[in-house]
């Protein structure tokens, strides 16, 4: 462990000395005071002639003895998550990706049984879209809590609180007897399901060395899009198979229960400040010496002030960082479009081509396949390029802008996919044409998210959970709102012009990763947000 122990002795009225263990900031403060003494000859009313009556001394000790009660990680410390074994990291990573898939699958799983829900509860098709939107709205509320709280109490407690509650909401949906109950449980389900979305990216930054983080992020990024695009396929065939809508929620309950069991037994705490705080607590118990402390334990604030600081952190970070705000808007548009497709695809394929809900769900399949292709491209092509940059910048890491390479390609693919889908959506054209537009769409989305997501993590390191929470809050707002106007938009504008409108917006946003790639260092240098990257 690294220590610093600085003793400052100041004169008291009884001529005794007060000795305290202080941190690095106190050392700087004392040194500054000594410089003031040297140049001014005065200390709070004492003249040079009084120096014999008053002493201020700083005892300099070796680095090994400094801060001897401050608990930090040593080099190659086995408790440091970055030093855990490959097997342990793999299990944690696989679990995090599965929980993301579980959360996002739940968001759109009812889409295949919407007609059953409309018949049972007696609401309109617009109200049916609310069943999807309310869950995604929960993704907006949840990160306000889970991201900042995980940076104070740790990743594991948040998971162990949110996952059982999420399972409970799925049981509530399956047993619902009226419209109010299912809508309330859907909203609450989204709030609790947001915890993995917020914290899993932060877990990756906890356990994966920056040089290898990109490969892990490739698998992590596909989760938020594989889930919602696979869900219509699953529930659509459950509907065609004659299963009740309740079985959709029982299926989700079983999957969520499996994720809960995995999180209990295979998801340890990964947040370093909390691990150090736990170590300090253990040292106090083992030695009986209460002077052992960790940095997280010194953050003493009144409860209300602390709560306000925790919950406001994502918003403070977002509005202090125009760069983060721009990235968030771009990612939010992409996310909103993903959920808009759950209303647009039935118009093109069910109404236009006459497919049932099961076959219509199959039309989504090229989207996750495109996403998986993007992951493969990253491992085969993009990551080797990044590793070259790692070697060139050794012993420091490349600037975060090197993470944006994938986004440059994704920004180009996205508008191409929109125009492809739009102008091949005529019923007279084979369904294969609009269906296969999903492939570049999925590829472009994941390439964009891979670059932008990694850029956020590398830029905001210690505040990664709050930065990601800010992006999730606003992208969830888009994801909740877009399906509500999708039907009217595609019916009034026709799929051709509705899709083209999305394409034009994508073209307008396409320069963003190119601008960040060129001007990112200058923008980061002017950062006013907390804990910017030290790259």
UniProtKB/TrEMBL annotation:
<dbReference type="InterPro" id="IPR020846">
    <property type="entry name" value="MFS_dom"/>
</dbReference>
<feature type="transmembrane region" description="Helical">
    <location>
        <begin position="429"/>
        <end position="453"/>
    </location>
</feature>
<protein>
    <recommendedName>
        <fullName>Major facilitator superfamily (MFS) profile domain-containing protein</fullName>
    </recommendedName>
</protein>
<dbReference type="GO" id="GO:0005886">
    <property type="term" value="C:plasma membrane"/>
</dbReference>
<dbReference type="InterPro" id="IPR011701">
    <property type="entry name" value="MFS"/>
</dbReference>
<keyword id="KW-0812">Transmembrane</keyword>
<feature type="transmembrane region" description="Helical">
    <location>
        <begin position="127"/>
        <end position="146"/>
    </location>
</feature>
<feature type="transmembrane region" description="Helical">
    <location>
        <begin position="460"/>
        <end position="485"/>
    </location>
</feature>
<feature type="transmembrane region" description="Helical">
    <location>
        <begin position="90"/>
        <end position="115"/>
    </location>
</feature>
<feature type="transmembrane region" description="Helical">
    <location>
        <begin position="315"/>
        <end position="342"/>
    </location>
</feature>
<feature type="transmembrane region" description="Helical">
    <location>
        <begin position="402"/>
        <end position="423"/>
    </location>
</feature>
<dbReference type="Pfam" id="PF07690">
    <property type="entry name" value="MFS_1"/>
</dbReference>
<feature type="domain" description="Major facilitator superfamily (MFS) profile">
    <location>
        <begin position="88"/>
        <end position="535"/>
    </location>
</feature>
<dbReference type="GO" id="GO:0022857">
    <property type="term" value="F:transmembrane transporter activity"/>
</dbReference>
<keyword id="KW-0472">Membrane</keyword>
<feature type="transmembrane region" description="Helical">
    <location>
        <begin position="247"/>
        <end position="266"/>
    </location>
</feature>
<feature type="transmembrane region" description="Helical">
    <location>
        <begin position="362"/>
        <end position="381"/>
    </location>
</feature>
<keyword id="KW-1133">Transmembrane helix</keyword>
<dbReference type="InterPro" id="IPR036259">
    <property type="entry name" value="MFS_trans_sf"/>
</dbReference>
<feature type="transmembrane region" description="Helical">
    <location>
        <begin position="183"/>
        <end position="204"/>
    </location>
</feature>
<feature type="transmembrane region" description="Helical">
    <location>
        <begin position="497"/>
        <end position="516"/>
    </location>
</feature>
